[in-house]
Queue: 2 jobs
Job 1
Amino acid sequence: MTAYDYLVVGAGLFGAVFAREAALHHKRVKVIEKRDHVAGNIYTKEIDGIQVHQYGAHIFHTSDQEIWDYVGQFATFNRYTNSPIANYKGQLYNLPFNMNTFSELWGVRTPAEAQQKIDRQRAGLKLTGTPRNLEEQALSLVGTDIYEKLIKGYTEKQWGQRARDLPAFIIRRLPVRYTFDNNYFNDTYQGIPIGGYTQIVEKMLASELIDVETGVDFFDHRAQYLRDYPKIIFTGMIDQYFNYQLGELAYRSLQFKTEELAIDNYQGNAVVNYTDAETPFTRIIEHKHFEFGKGAAGKTIITREYPKIWHRGDEPYYPINNVKNNELYKAYAALAKNEKQVIFGGRLGQYRYFDMHQVIHSALVAAKKELE
Ligand code: FAD
Ligand code: UDP
């Protein structure tokens, strides 16, 4: 036995929130992390005064005042509003789908004209009932032109599957608006932490009651951890924890290719999506624009994001929440229920397409249940 009350596996947002809450309840916590840094996928690193989002663009957004206040304890957020640009075969369009997009596509000027255009495209499609997949959902929301130019190619390369085999909820993440408003999110609060995300996790873990060890994989010492720690918070892959005994859950992986360029401004926006099927990457992030150009003059850093098939050993960035995988996850969740020593949490532990605010919420709920 150790002197610790908890072992937290994974120093991402879920693990860090849980560890902090436990320490506030006077518990001793050991955190292990297999990467060589804390913060999981929200990790940012300063290069030339630019906060580089090492695992893809992260924009914090929430409508939950409590979550916004909670995260505000660890960083000051700027007024960044995400407004990606779509590049379809060299033509630029505003995202999400709004009056600017409709006007760029069709030359329409009023919401009524845009609605009419979309209605006409939908009318020819014989869509009835609740959309059964992403393709039906997208067509019923925005019609054929937008689906073909801004959704189909991007979606199919992002997920490596046909849009008609993907769940509808994925596309419902994006607003459709009949106003000239390029804000990608509908949430009340949004921003980027000034000075990056890593500080948030570092501050959560900065307690005399928390010890953090990076470069350590739970599975290298699993038996010992289970023997020594009364309770374990596991934020890695739930199917791996159970040794894939019921089968493998599917994930989507990514490769990030980052370049430093000797120019001030490469694309004029933080995020540009390449929505055609042929371009092998989905988006280019120009990191300095998350903080309105802050950083060394004459330099910029861009990252191309290439989706790829996940194999064991790759980083599992996205759960693929289709019916088959959700059923398999349910079977793992049933096993997890009997594993009384372990709490499974986060994007991988709960196999959910969680955004940051949802992970914080879920970790706070788990901590409350466990600690109070
Ligand atoms: P993670 O951050 O994955 O942390 C889990 C940690 O556990 C990792 O550090 C991992 O290395 C470690 N670990 C796993 N297995 C083991 C093991 N066996 N032993 C030791 N350590 C282990 N959310 C937003 O709100 N806004 C966005 O704009 C946004 N953009 C995103 C873009 C991309 C490309 C991706 C992939 C995600 C994005 N997200 C965004 C989601 C956000 O990254 C997650 O909600 C959040 O990081 C999940 O936190 P977590 O702690 O659950 O998981
Ligand atoms: N999407 C799209 N075209 C775009 C951007 C997004 O078709 O230009 C679809 C795609 O299926 C994607 C989903 O909308 O997976 C959700 O997009 P989001 O930006 O929320 O994805 P994330 O940032 O989580 O990768």
Job 2
Amino acid sequence: MTTDSRTEPSTGLDFPTGFLFGAATAAYQVEGAVAVDGRGPSIWDTFSHTPGRVLGGETGDVAIEHYQRFRDDVRLMRDLGLQAYRFSIAWPRVQPSGRGALNQAGVDFYSRLIDELLAAGIEPWPTLYHWDLPQPLEDAGGWPERDTAERFADYAGAITTALGDRVRQWTTLNEPWCSAFLGYGSGLHAPGRQDAAASVRAGHHLMLGHGLAAGLLRSAGQQVGITINLYDVLPAGEWDVDLDAARRIDGLQNRFFLDPVLRGSYPADVVHDLAGVTDFSHVRDGDLATISTPLDMLGVNYYSRHLVTGRPAVGGDGHGGEAGSGASPWPGSEHVGFVKGDLPVTAMGWEIYAAGLTEVLERVAEEYPPVPLYVTENGAAFADEPDPDGLVRDAERVSYLDGHLRACRTAIEAGVPLRGYFCWSLFDNFEWSWGYSRRFGLVHVDYETQKRTPKSSAFWYGDLIRGRQGASLTGH
Ligand code: IFM
């Protein structure tokens, strides 16, 4: 591997012994092979093939061919020095109809991937649900229906029984906020429904599915966690309506998930805000006890802050940077405006605000019962392309990662039990409704040839992991 696109190493970025450094992907974003070895359709296949849903009409049909190229990809991970690989298992690949017997060919793929990782000295860190619901379950009502939670628990039990002998840590869901509120509220994500009440029910049933699965896994001696996408939510001004806007968005983005999972209750103010949307009669006795099954870890995904206002004249796009849809992903708080601050932004238009990562980590550690934390996603999209010499010099991403890793250090020094960090993403890949137009990878992918080219950030991150900050490098 060439090392000529390295940047200057970071200094002072030391982490406690045993701190786990990895990188992440998700099945639909990288695998391709959507009709291979018995895989069934997911809601993202249907959605991406529906005209107008994804920028440029792009789909995950081919993606970056990780399904076929995983051995080479694992070799690359090893060369970069990754200690762990966070990937997701495609439910429709291992249980195409969402119920019944597992599809052995699909299970075998993940079994081979895990074996390959272990042989390379890389810890497999699988997520059971990263948004690709089997289409037959959506046809039966999807996450707004309680039965989907039961189906998820059955799938989780079966796949973890099949693969659990080689996995230390399972994650149930990735970012249930997106599945619920973008999937069923704004319709920006699959399945593209716009129904505020359904989105709240979906959020509950996602968490119920998590809780049912967590109970099963723990009674089988497995370790389990969940990943939630948290934001530092700040008022755009000192007005009461701005403070109220911040409380509401913090409620829906963060506490709607943290409180049931870690405390076994919904936040009273959020239930009150949602009074015109739902009466919460979908919540049954015992659900919150199930949802708050003790966890072995909480995954935190962090990208940016939300700056919000309740003043209509000041209001921004109303969607928290998730433009492109007419409906709101904020049920009961549709009036809140999202303001662009004065910070530099990534290619997603997301403000770069590393201090917010320290904030959310410290907040979880201070306000909730103790649980080991991992940053399971953090990273940035920039318009990276190879220079004429073939190297990809992504200094902005290096700076983003450096800043956010320093924010992790600050949290650790303050006593936060942060145990690891996963960069999003290992590879450029299918960025959901943005198609392939946004590149988050440490490794550049040429979508015509599938050529992988580690960017400067990949070498920088590898050096950090190997603790070689003092090595003499060619600066580019
Ligand atoms: O690409 C996504 C990922 O699938 C989930 N978290 C946020 C990333 C960037 O948008």
